[in-house]
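Hey,
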Amino acid sequence: MDPSRLSRAALAAAALLATVVPTAGPAAAAPPVPRIDLTVLVVDDGSGTVGAIAAELQGAGVPYRTLDLNDPDRPVVDAGFLSDTVDGRPRAKYQGVVLPHETPFGPDSPEQTALAAYQRTYGIPQVDAYTWAHPGVGLDYTSEGGWSGVLDGVTATVTAAGRSGPFRHLDGPVTFEDNDPAISESYGYAGRPREGYTSYLDLPVAGGGRASLIGEYARDGRRELVVTFAYNQHQRQFRALARGIVEWLTQGVHLGRSRSYFSVHVDDVFAPDARWNTERNCTPGDLDCVGEWGHLPAVAGGGQSADAIRMTAADAGHAAAWQKSAGFTLDMVYNGGQGEQWKTEHGGRDDLSTRLISDRAQYRWINHTYTHPFLGCVQDSSTVPWQCAKNAAGTTLWTSRSEISGQIRDNHNWAVGKGISVDRAELVTGEHSGLKTLPQQPVDNPNLAGALADNGVKWLASDNSREPAQRAVGSTRTVPRHPMNVYYNVGTAAEMTDEYNWIYTSRADGGSGLCESNPASTCLPAPLDTATGYAGHIVPQEARIALSHIVANDPRPHYVHQSNLAEERLLYPVLDRILADYRALFADNTPLVNPRHRDVGLELQRRAAWAKALADGQVTAYRIGSTVTVRTPSGVLVPLTAPDGTRKQLLLGTAAFGTPYAGARSDWTGPEPLQSAITLKLPTT
């Protein structure tokens, strides 16, 4: 063979080989893992369903940005609005999207197309806050074996997929509220799932089988949570499901945390409480209890009334036994001086004090001042309503710093002398006095803050119905408490119902008419039967209200009075109903949290600092793969929720993150020593 021909053939073969076999060199770089910011986008059309989800995010401390569809100057949703690049790494600005329904921008609009592309690119889930059952969301039409109509009183079931997934905090059936049979409170559509749809909440339908009210629809590289019933943020069915909606939306990794809190403060322990006068519709001893007879004193000639309501030793024994059987601890808010006065007036004997002190370790105790005086301005009861007394120069007269301090100190020392464990930092003043009391006393007693500081008080109770926000009183912070509608001045169900009728019945029906003049109140259609009204109406109503606080991540305590544990022991039916309803609905992994007074104050203080940091734009939080990074101002703790198995980066090694709750782990946390950021390592399986 011609050597030159061989040489040309070899060169051709070599050239051909070069076209099919890459030359040696560095491997092509993999694209960087995107950064997902821990913020939710809420597209708001003004509907109550979107507002409900936004309220849940806000209450838990989850940061979100609202895009108002009704704002003509709102930004356009496009690729630049949704994502960008940071330090050469692609960034998704939102970890989840809440929409009023599946296509709020129009099915084929540029904005809807941009949003869909964003979700596919970064794996961002979407919640459809309320839509109807149709194939576009993975469901058959309701006419094809589904159901539509009013849901009031209907019971739905969390499916196995829901209980093992985002709704693992729920155990029992979810019953839709039906508070007024004359009003439709919730409407919905239930459809049979199609391919790609996983039902999380369903109900039985005619003809057999089940149809879905909530479920996940996966298609086209996107995932959406489809909700096909209407709701608002206060309804129990939404409150029960809200945690799961947020967990699904954030894939279980988010800023913010949520618990079910319930504490009950029992005020006036050791003291008697005056009794409601069913004939004159007022309470003797109250400064406004007047009429043609003048002021009705609590006791003629002073002292303590023979018909006052006060627990007995048997009532104390029942309280201790109830706590044990219910698995719940009461906070005894005590007045030691009142107990001593009772003993003096009863021959030196007080069986109630003996029993409560013997059982002291079974309760938590909070200082309520020694003799329960009014610690604000000096009250002038010569007018109705009372007013603050003034001196000749027109200056308001105030309870002195020394008197306030003495009331706090003497009651604390009394408890210590009885072997009762009491925290000096916690205080409840009588009637929340010393704090501003509108309209008569528009400012705090100027002597209050100093007296609190004198005694090391850090957490002072306030009335949530007057002041729902925590605030500072000198170096002390308030702890708002929810009043329960189990009145302090009644010992029997008939007395309770009589007073309830007086407050909530119109003048035409023989009531006070207060419900007519108060825009926040509603009158009863007719007075309640005093024999059945308490058990039939008041108990379920009050249990429903308290439960709405519990499932809304509200740590504020509820308060009642020792009279509610006496005589007919009116409080227990309410507490039993609350505990039973909660435990029937929620799984064992989501127990009631029973915080003490100071723990509630600290929780509210942390929330306020966190909300300010978010509002000031001082929080940076994102996820890259299985690593979460959070930066926040020094001293501000971060509420964080992550899946079980998450570990926190230490200076050397890692440690298990947070505490378990509702199938996840969460905590208030900050950077470890010598670290500038919080770093979490998520489980990879």
